[in-house]
Amino acid sequence: MISSTLKVGDKFTDLNRTFEVLSVVEPGVYISKCVKVEQIEFATNEPVKKEEAKEESQLDSFNKYTKTEINRLNVSELEKVCDQLGLEKGTGTAMKKAIIEKLGL
């Protein structure tokens, strides 16, 4: 489980991936980016190809947003999420719609 006291710049791991906290939405809810992917070996001892970490920002896997949570965010929080996801800022409604679409919710 990820600590609820991480700060911007802190790193944490999820399985074979290392993430860096880009911003803290609220305690225990972070916007982060994947900075490293480690190689995993399976029982066959054939290694999985190592993939380059995507620099694209993403919500970390322990704190996924739901549609309801996105719809409850205020404009400044929506703007932060839009920045991290590379989305255009606009009205609150437009940003919510864009975020929900980008995350496939």
Topology:
Elements: E1 11-14, E2 17-26, E3 29-37, E4 57-59, H1 67-72, H2 75-85, H3 92-102
Antiparallel strand pairs: 1-2, 2-3, 3-4
What's the alpha carbon Rg, rounded to whole Å?
15 Å
Biggest sheet statistics: 4 strands, antiparallel
H/E series, N to C? EEEEHHH
List how many beta strands DSSP finds: 4
What proportion of the residues is helical, as a percent range?
25-40%
Q: Average pLDDT across residues?
A: 77
Model regions low in confidence, pLDDT < 50 over at least 5 residues: 52-62
Which structural class fits the helix and strand makeup?
alpha+beta
Relative strand content: 15-25%
Continuous helix count: 3
Distance between the ends? 24 Å
Q: How many separate structural domains?
A: 2
Strand order of the largest sheet: 1-2-3-4
Short description:
By secondary structure, this protein is an alpha+beta fold. It is 27% helix and 25% strand.
Explain this structure to me?
- This protein is an alpha+beta fold and 105 residues long.
- It has 2 domains: 1-63, no CATH class; 65-105.
- It is 27% helix and 25% strand.
- It has 3 helices and 4 strands; from the N terminus they run E-E-E-E-H-H-H.
- The chain has helices spanning 67-72, 75-85, 92-102; strands spanning 11-14, 17-26, 29-37, 57-59.
- It has a 4-stranded antiparallel sheet.
- Helix 2 runs parallel beside helix 3.
- The longest helix is centred in the last third of the chain and has 11 residues, at 75-85.
- The two termini are 24 Å apart.
